[in-house]
Amino acid sequence: MDLPMDFRGGGGLRRPSSQGFVPLADTRRAFLAKAGNGFGALALAWILHQEAAADESRATSPLAPSPPHFPPKAKNIIYLFMHGGPSHLETFDPKPGLERLAGKPLPESFGSVVTSRNVGRNPLLPTSRTFAPRGQSGIEISDLFPNLAACVDDLAVIRSCWADSVDHARAVYQMSSGVTTMGKPCLGSWVGYGLGTENQDLPSFAVLPQPRGAIKGGPAAFGSGFLPAPYQGTVVRRGDLSNLELRPFNGMSADRQSRMLDLVRQLDSRHASRRDGNPELEAKIRNYELAYRMQGAAPEAVDITSESRATKALYGVDDPVTADFGARCLLARRLVERGVRFVQLFSGDLTGWDGHEDIQANHAGLCAAVDRPIAGLLRDLKSRGLFESTLVVWGGEFGRLPMSENKRGRDHNPYGFTMWFAGAGVKGGVVHGATDEVGLRAVVDRVHVHDLHATILYLMGLDHMRLTYTRNDREERLTDTGGQVVRSIIA
User: Fold this and answer.
1) Model confidence over 190-205: pLDDT tens digits?
2) What pTM does this model have?
3) Furthest CA-CA distance within the chain
4) Were 475 and a residue from 48, 111, 399, 468 both cysteine, which residue would form a disulfide, CB within 3.0 to 4.6 Å?
5) CATH class for domain 71-239+303-489?
């Protein structure tokens, strides 16, 4: 509505009031200031409208895209989880001091340490791996990763990670959900809750498990906890859809199945309306709908046969040693390419990276299986223009101790270990933090699990302090009461 103006008395802008016309501004400068505030109000109204529209969209589809808290550096995540606890001492954290003290007990100056198998006083075990500076950055990586070493200038290596548990399951829970107990939403679920997904025919959070052996901690390691069910990880396996229950029932046509699902949807909706919109019922209805849509989208997404021979060779799909992990890395690229927000790959098989008996033999085999595929993934993301929008994270639930176990193995070490980031928003060719002389504890610029999570969320445009979910009158968040963004690795 146009406001009546009166330019009497010096030309000041006026508006109507119960006392007649009152001046709004006496000068053009004041007028512009007032008008600017009005433009700000219009902008605020637009933002609120956008948020309301997003909330309304989420009410009908919880995986609908939602705006981040601030401009993100990454759109998608591929999390390479080395299940069982890879040794930083054999991979990314050279320790000449460990060689010098080899065969001796841990000096008392290092203090006491709680271990899972009472190895605290065992002799220190040197590594048989060779470390050398790689790339222009000169970051030292062991000979177990010859292919990844060529990509070192893309990596931000964090050598000062630490966690709170020496037990596998509890450590996996913490690395996944921020706490050492099951039942809390994992990182992938929080990302889906905060951002949704760009492809409504595929899940926001896909899990690519190892082909043999269960994940330590079980499915809770990729569960949604108290978040609604659509945010939990969806297990995806390449090629074979029999375990995904994505094929229609035998003999059922697409038209018949569609009509059946329409009927189920109507009955479920009627049932839910009588129960004041029970969220669990609503979640089940949406899961049925997502499963139906996935029947059309998933077969194409998980079928890597259409990839070129050169691409398959890049990932090592043509080599029995690297074929499995290579195919899953290739599948991860296909999923983020199709808008899946978070993809988590598990490496480890039966015992995983849990080198209690013989750390060298254990890691030699596992590194050989993942080295070429990971390097291929980084190169392929770059060649397709996806590296700038995809965050790649590598690590396990903890590292390994410098003391020996069974003369050739290493026990669990949550006190100091290595992870690395690459891709969107990450500085390449940098090292953050350090462990002590023998690699026992993180001592310089320490990075707790909460800090890792805060950093990952930040790169996705999410403030870990604002990404909350109200439960039992408490604002829950992934990082609980901690978490600092590791700024030194951010471009």
Assistant:
1) 999 999 998 888 889 9
2) 0.83
3) 96
4) 468
5) alpha beta
